[in-house]
UniProtKB/TrEMBL annotation:
Residues 1-641, 687-704 are cytoplasmic. Its EC number is 3.6.5.-. Keywords: Endoplasmic reticulum, GTP-binding, Hydrolase, Membrane, Nucleotide-binding, Transmembrane, Transmembrane helix. GO terms for molecular function: GTP binding; GTPase activity. GTP binds at residues 40-47. Signal peptide: none annotated. It comes from Blepharisma stoltei. Residues 663-665 are lumenal. One of its GO terms (biological process) is endoplasmic reticulum membrane fusion. This is Protein SEY1 homolog. Coiled coil: none annotated. Residues 30-247 form the GB1/RHD3-type G domain.
Amino acid sequence: MAMKSVQIVTFEGEFTQAMKPFLEVSGLRSTDYHIVAIIGCQSTGKSTLLNMLFGTDFDTLDAYKGRNQTTKGIHLGANLECKTLIIDIEGTDSQIRGDDGAAFEHMSALFALACADVLMVNMWTSEIGRYKAASVGLLKTIFEVNLRLFTLEKKKRILFVLRDFNDQQNNLTVLKQQMSRTLEELWSKIKKPESYILLSVFDCFDFEFKTVSVKDFKPEEFKADIDDLRDRFHNEERMDYLFRYKDTDIPLDGIPLYFQEIWTVIGNDKDLNIPSQKEMLANLRCNEIKFEALRLFTTAIEPTAKLIGRCTVPDFSTIFSEKIKEALAEYDKNGSAYYETIYLSIKNELNQLLLDQIKDLFHSQMRCVVTESTKYFKDTLESKINKGQAIENFSATISEVEQLTLSLFAVNAQASIIENSGWETAEYEAELMKWIEEKKSVEKEKQLELLQKEVKSALSGKFSFNANKILENPFDDNMWSKLKEFQASTMQELESRYTNVLKGLDFSEDQIASKLAEIRRECYSTLKSKATKYCNGLVDQLTKKFNQLFLKNENGIPREWKNAPIDEIFAQSKDTVLATLESLRLFRIVCEWDTDHGEHDYEELIGEEQFHLIMESFLKDAEMAYKEAVHIKEFGYARNKVNGWYLLLIIILGWNEFMWLLKSPIILYPLLFVFSIVALMFSMGMGAVPKFILKQALSKVPFF
């Protein structure tokens, strides 16, 4: 819960009397309260931040009316819920105050540090490293004067609030390190009492950092950051509670006089008095000349600045170094006649401002350099590899492309660094290296995919055709030998290619051996799958081979059973076929085609149960053919011996009926269908079936 704020120091630096009645109705009691103050550049959202954290009503900037000074002087608010007094300080670098505002800035900053338990320094994340924007000058003064004017019985807590933080572009750890180095440098430069000489800045101050996302572009993350920071002020249970050390020991009714005395002490400090007239004039004029040189510089770099971000500017360093020299020369021409100390100090400020103004352009340039380098890497690599086939020297090729890319990056990066700027390109080089490593991994996977496609292609198509051709002739005594030779010739070529590609991908010997084992298993599985598929129709193949051996002689002529030794022929034919069946019980191929192996190394191709089913089916067909042959030998020739006059009599007497059959489609078509089925069965080696049926039918007719 907050109440309406009041102004305690006017724009002119006068301490008002509004504080006492404000505190009387604030609801705060005794010493049970905390004090928070905030400093920072103008228009950085200090008042808005305090309003969101503590529910105060400090005046805030209206962006539609342009950037101007909203908070003038020093204002005070209160929040009863977290028992806190909130001090809102006028922004530094005010355009309204101009160059005369330095004394007030220093006074107000010292006042804030002296009074507050927690001093918040509000700054843009992108401004870290800039003298003014990061309040470096104020911090230096705060360190130095605070040691002389106030007793550091307890550490003062300074909370840096980094606004518009983007975790995709900013690294909090790096920013902390940068700020810590700046604080240590400032501490080392100030004059310290003997009791503080051996102490570091971190022994005297407690620094903390809090990031806040961009309000307009990441509203949800911004709200979450504000909520978290608010909780750190309100929630006493948190380990990072900002008021965990009780610093206030002045009763609330003594606060107005205490604040007024502090303001008076700071205002009377000699180091903060108005400089001499000569120094004052030099300060005023050198700053005017500085801003004029900065304006001319901004105009001069505008054409080049428009190009940056679209493409890499090859002579970036040359162009901007020349423009900086021109701006400094313009400053020297008009400012060198003034007080030397101030002239040189402001010249250093100008040089830093010039570098700060183009630093973002440098980062845009480096992003373009990285983008151009990645494009060069991709284009060069694509020109050196075959998209449809894996290459055998991949590592050497991609290493060559990597070196060419890094060389290109180094040349462009060096041409982008301005002398004595302190800028680094290591961050972008690391980004490029990370991208290259990821790209190398992706391309390596693509090479493996292409190689796998080659394996699949090699084990299909022509491979399948040749394997099937060998397996279709199981009665060839050399079938397994031919299949082994086929496997060996295929794998020798395939493994040689596979090994060369994997070596080119920097695979170890063990990894290569593992990959070769995979393709050997794949080849083995493919061959076994085809053999298994063939065995599914093995009964018909065995029967067909048996009929070929049993029903026909060596010349392929059907046998005449009248004088043939049926039992002997049957036994020979059956044994030949069963020997083939026996040879197919095991798959006489192994994965390790190039090693010696015995019978125990073979896997089962036809299971025991399947083997007996196939043999029973085959023997049943063979016995049927055998019985038919015996029947023909014993009865067939006698029955088929018909007198010629009998056939002539049938033709004469049945001529009309025969012609009637030919002219009647109802009778003719079924007969043709039956004859077609019978012919098909004979062509498939199953002629014994229709013969047997016909023989059984004729046996029922008496005169046959």
